[in-house]
Design brief:
Blueprint lengths: L3 E11 L15 E10 L4 E8 L4 H16 L7 H11 L7 H22 L3 H4 L7 E5 L9 H14 L3 E5 L5 H15 L4 E5 L6 H11 L7 E2 L7 H10 L4 E3 L6 H10 L4 E2 L9 H13 L3 E2 L5 H10 L6 E3 L12 E3 L2 E3 L12 H7 L3
Parallel strand pairs: 4-11, 5-6, 6-7, 7-8, 8-9, 9-10
Antiparallel strand pairs: 1-2, 2-3, 4-13, 12-13
């Protein structure tokens, strides 16, 4: 049988592996929300989502008080039905970050169960489009780092075989951003990708101004230049520059992605499996992007996105920004600058239960 008999929820705090700063915030900690679903045939699937320092206890409360009890007695195979029912039961708080993060923790656990039952890895069961994808680095490009540190990190990333690196922008003047990026470009040469990320820190006018200064540096994409709700502003920016505009990290529904794609305001989609509400909506977004001939380069969560990006035809890049090392035993396999998705059945994440118990806060 496949009836859900038990749902366990946990909150674990993980310290960042490096100091992470951007134009709007500092990554304080990863509050990792874990959900384990058990069925009457003895299978257990574990999923998760995260915050970058606040709200984790609120997500946990939403799961414990409202979502988890509604799962008992459901057929774990009915993932679409469960997702729709869960969304409907939280309609008063959807769409938004806390609800999406809660839905994602449940949905990824159900997908883990689906893959375990089928004895297939996630990347294949969700589509199997690629057996590997290129990786770019983010860990060496934070805004607090000096120009010299950015250059050294970029040179190291290139020497390791990674295909590019992302650098935070949003210094007080455009000149400071350009000076930093130009030094990196000179160090790594013309055939290595440089991405930039403003973390929603700019006005429409300033984003247009800065994008033009990036064009001569052959920037691969300009990420989150404006607040995510400003579809019209992103469209104006996209029409004004040759630099592709990347969005998705702070978008929490399939419908909002549809607005961007239909308007032509997104050149690259960066859908985040936790923030969009799980694997079920993630796949809808990825296939919608494919229909609009737009590539997908997911945000964060590389341990999940390695499988998901490889599952879909639109998969483009996986972001190298490790965070689960302290509570897992399954490092990703990266060869010649490409990540190879896990081949083990399930999500491909081997959880370290002892470490989780030590770091558990709720």
């Amino acid at each position: 049988m496949t009836t859900i008999t038990k749902v366990d929820t946990r909150l674990v705090n993980i310290e960042p592996e490096a100091l992470r700063t951007d134009a709007t915030q500092t990554f304080v900690r990863q509050e990792t929300i874990l959900v384990t679903v058990e069925t009457d045939d003895g299978l257990r699937g574990t999923g998760y989502s995260y915050t970058i320092g606040t709200g984790g206890s609120s997500v946990l409360a939403l799961l414990r008080d409202h979502l988890a009890p509604t799962l008992i007695g459901s057929d774990a195979r009915d993932i679409e039905a469960i997702w729709a029912k869960s969304l409907a039961s939280t309609r008063a708080t959807a769409f938004g970050a806390l609800t999406s993060l809660a839905l994602a923790a449940v949905d990824t656990a159900l997908w883990d169960l689906r893959c375990l039952r089928a004895e297939e890895p996630l990347w294949r069961l969700a589509g199997g489009a690629h057996d590997r994808l290129p990786v770019y680095d983010t860990e060496g490009g934070w805004l607090h780092l000096t120009t010299e540190e950015l250059v050294a990190n970029a040179v190291k990333s290139r020497a390791s075989g990674l295909r590019g690196a992302k650098f935070k922008v949003g210094k007080p003047t455009a000149g400071e951003d350009v000076e930093r990026l130009a030094a990196v470009r000179e160090a790594v040469g013309p055939d290595w990708e440089i991405m930039v990320d403003a973390n929603q820190s700019m006005t429409g006018a300033e984003a247009i101004r800065r994008a033009r200064t990036y064009e001569s540096l052959d920037i691969a994409w300009f990420e989150e230049p404006l607040p995510a709700e400003d579809v019209a502003g992103h469209l104006r920016l996209a029409r004004s520059t040759t630099v592709p505009v990347a969005v998705g990290e702070s978008i929490y529904s399939v419908g909002h992605f549809a607005e961007y794609l239909a308007a032509g305001a997104a050149g690259i989609v960066q859908v985040d499996v936790a923030r969009v509400g799980g694997i079920t909506p993630w796949l809808k977004v990825a296939h919608a992007a494919e229909a609009f001939n737009v590539k997908v380069a997911p945000h964060f969560l590389m341990e999940l996105h390695a499988s998901l990006a490889c599952a879909v035809p639109a998969g483009m890049y996986v972001e190298h920004i490790p965070q689960l090392g302290s509570i897992t035993r399954s490092p990703l396999r990266i060869e010649n600058g490409c990540v190879i998705p896990p081949k083990a059945p399930g999500l491909g994440i081997e959880w370290d239960e002892d470490a989780i118990a030590n770091l558990r806060v709720a």
